[in-house]
Design brief:
Length: about 300
């Protein structure tokens, strides 16, 4: 079994230069820095228009040390497939191709290309960093924006639709590896990337990313908010390896202790949820309790 990474055993090699154009307290900056450490230097990146494009900087300046192809919103997975084909033609089988796209470029605009790559079994990594909205263009709602959240285009009563579960959609493609991670638990992300490196086909990793301006909290509270999402059971950390689902990291520990924090604490810490009524929060809490009751039952078998 692969040993768990600690802050002392984490690779010291850096693939992101010090200083980026990310917002203060950006969760993506943490996940991206640690994720590239796990992928290693022999990696080509594919990035569509997104917060990551802003983080990396404008040509000819780049904060990322690895080669990166910036593509259109809809073509991320297709472009990654093209790079993979070019590498195969050159017999460069050790170079990894990793797409990093936001929730808008994954759950909405880029879903068709991602589904196609997954159906073909293209040997790429696909990372969706989910800050739950189109944040670099003014915090508009996306398919993964939670129900009840205020955004630039749901300004009064919040989003009325449920959050799209993209990881479940990808799991339905029968991939060798699907994982849910959080920027608040970067070492969990690091270890999951290492575990799936040698698995075949498309590897899909969904990363929950706290966003200070889009969510409405002080930048210093980003890690606390990310962990609170997990501690309430609102967002779960897990792996699906060849179809087998297991909770991981902090979520697995909560399965053992059965001590979920009330989800109200998570909502009330963000201004985007200020219009959520007590009734709506109660309904969401009930959904979480029912989901975790199923986890408990499976854990007892």
């Amino acid at each position: 079994m692969q040993p768990k990474t600690t802050i002392l055993s984490l690779s010291t090699e850096e693939f992101v230069h010090a200083g980026t154009r990310a917002c203060s307290g950006c969760g993506l900056a943490i996940a991206y820095r640690v994720g590239l450490k796990a992928l290693g230097k022999d990696t080509i990146l594919v990035v569509p228009p997104s917060c990551l494009t802003v983080l990396q900087g404008l040509f000819p300046v780049a904060s990322t040390k690895l080669p990166c192809l910036n593509v259109t919103f809809a073509s991320t997975a297709a472009a990654a497939t093209g790079i993979l084909a070019a590498l195969k033609a050159q017999k460069k089988t050790r170079t990894k191709v990793a797409a990093w796209a936001g929730d808008g470029g994954t759950a909405d605009i880029g879903l068709q290309a991602l589904s196609g790559a997954a159906e073909r079994g293209d040997d790429i990594f696909y990372f969706c960093y989910d800050n739950e909205g189109y944040m670099n263009t003014g915090a508009q709602r996306s398919g993964t924006t939670p129900i009840g959240a205020l955004t630039a285009n749901t300004p009064f009563k919040g989003k009325r639709e449920q959050k799209k579960d993209v990881a479940a959609i990808m799991a339905a493609h029968k991939l060798s590896y699907v994982a849910a991670c959080s920027a608040a638990y970067p070492l969990d992300l690091y270890d999951k990337i290492l575990r799936c490196k040698n698995l075949p086909g498309t590897k899909y990793i969904h990363i929950h990313i706290p966003c200070p301006p889009g969510w409405g909290y002080e930048p210093r509270h980003g890690i606390r908010l990310g962990r609170l999402a997990v501690e309430t059971g609102y967002y779960d950390l897990y792996e699906i390896v060849n179809g087998e689902f297991t909770l991981s990291g902090a979520s697995n520990k909560m399965l053992e202790k059965r001590n979920l924090v009330p989800v109200r604490e998570y909502f009330r810490a963000q201004s985007r949820f200020q219009v959520l009524s007590d009734k709506q929060i109660e309904d969401i809490q009930k959904q979480i309790d029912e989901k975790w009751e199923e986890y408990y039952k499976k854990g007892e078998k």
